[in-house]
Model the fold of this input.
Amino acid sequence: MDQFERIMEAVGFIKKNCSVLPRVGVVLGSGLGEFADQVLDKTVLAYADIPHFQKVSVAGHVGRLVLGRIGKVAVAVLQGRYHYYEGHDIQDVVFPVRVLGQLGVKSLLLTNAAGGIGRELRPGDLMVIRDHINLMGINPLRGANDERLGPRFPDMSHVYDPEFQKLIAGAQKKIGLAAKKGVYLALSGPSYETPAEIRMLATLGADAVGMSTVPEAVCARHMGLRVAGISCVTNLAAGISSQPLSHQEVTETAERVKNDFIRLLSLVIPRLA
Ligand code: HPA
Done:
């Protein structure tokens, strides 16, 4: 069975179990999974039950696909993601996004927890991703290209839809949040960066650093989806403060900004359709 057939088998399973045809897809990052509670008329499918979905292992990630509505818009929310650092094949990391694309999702909102590098970023900030830098050492499109999914050499000039960026910034202002924007840089992890690495990443033009999102964004653009991205700055990057980094700090900050995050997504998602 090739990858396309695996994707379509997962799509078939989802369609059999849920009549909603989602238009907007959402990926919830570390500690940000609670947004899924906002979905109305829910159908919840455990990743463990969907053909070809891998097991989820990271604390703060549940592993469920939640289908339903936010406002009037049909959504598919991936509550929990696969990370490359877990040891998954990169094809398995992007598999859920491939499935959403083949399910008929037209727009994808990617969220993550990230370390803040940019001077103006503070823990608790929600940063609109305006572009990314891929330093993961991999590309999910490596290997034979399947034209049924997208072209061999997809353009990456505007990965994060400019209209979506404006829309999110407007929503941030409306609910009294600072409208921060920046470049997200992805490394493979799972160790956090050294202070020397963070100084290097700053000179490369990174505002925030994390271990996800980029493979999903690349595949979504490959499939022609419109993409939006929001980083929750959970900590200052290594060396910017003297504090050591920990996953606990990441999940604690995500918990602290949860209400802002939920309000922002509730406002934004219906307008991504
Ligand atoms: N570095 C990498 N990934 C992260 C960080 C960080 O500081 N915070 C949350 N995810």
Observations:
- Residues 113-115, 192-193, 209-211, 234-235, 237, 245, 250 surround hypoxanthine (CB under 6 Å).
- The mean pLDDT is 95.
- The two ends are 33 Å apart (CA to CA).
- The chain has one domain: 3-271.
